[in-house]
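TASK: fixed-backbone design
INPUT:
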């Protein structure tokens, strides 16, 4: 039913794109039914020895920072006060180690979008994007290299 309180709200990789992640969580928490749960999963950090992906991440950090956003917002979520009316049930970090080739396949298409985005065009040199694209493409068939994602996974529950 439209407008009914939610039993479950799930957010993954969204808070990193909000200037005020706490406000987003408060809004979602207000919409929970008694006993309802708010689940959040956000990047705490990404570590890699794959040089082209490290360069890609540097661009992501710069672009998000220009808008008051953070790619590692998960690192600050644990210290946020719970939204009113909810209690934090759990907060943990999960570690993932995807293959470098899979990561490249997932993020390389973003470069094409960046080339058309006015907010990026003025911040990132086209020649640098060309070089980064070629370097990522060269990684596409490689299994070498280490990429470790640490994800903050949290659960809150509306007090009944």
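OUTPUT:
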């Amino acid at each position: 039913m439209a407008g009914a309180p939610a039993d479950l709200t799930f957010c993954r990789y969204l808070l990193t794109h909000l200037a005020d992640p706490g406000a987003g969580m408060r809004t979602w928490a207000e919409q929970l039914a008694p006993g309802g749960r708010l689940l959040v999963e956000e990047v705490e950090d990404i570590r890699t020895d794959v040089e082209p992906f490290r360069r890609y991440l540097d661009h992501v950090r710069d672009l998000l920072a220009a808008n008051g956003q953070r790619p590692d917002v998960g690192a600050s979520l644990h210290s946020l006060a719970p939204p009113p009316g909810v209690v934090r049930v759990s907060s943990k970090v999960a570690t993932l180690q995807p293959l470098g080739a899979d990561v490249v396949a997932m993020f390389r298409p973003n470069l094409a979008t960046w080339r058309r985005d006015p907010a990026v065009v003025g911040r990132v040199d086209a020649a640098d994007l060309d070089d980064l694209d070629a370097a990522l493409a060269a990684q596409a068939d490689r299994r070498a290299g280490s990429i470790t994602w640490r994800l903050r996974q949290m659960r809150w529950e509306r007090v009944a």
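COMMENT: The radius of gyration is 18 Å.
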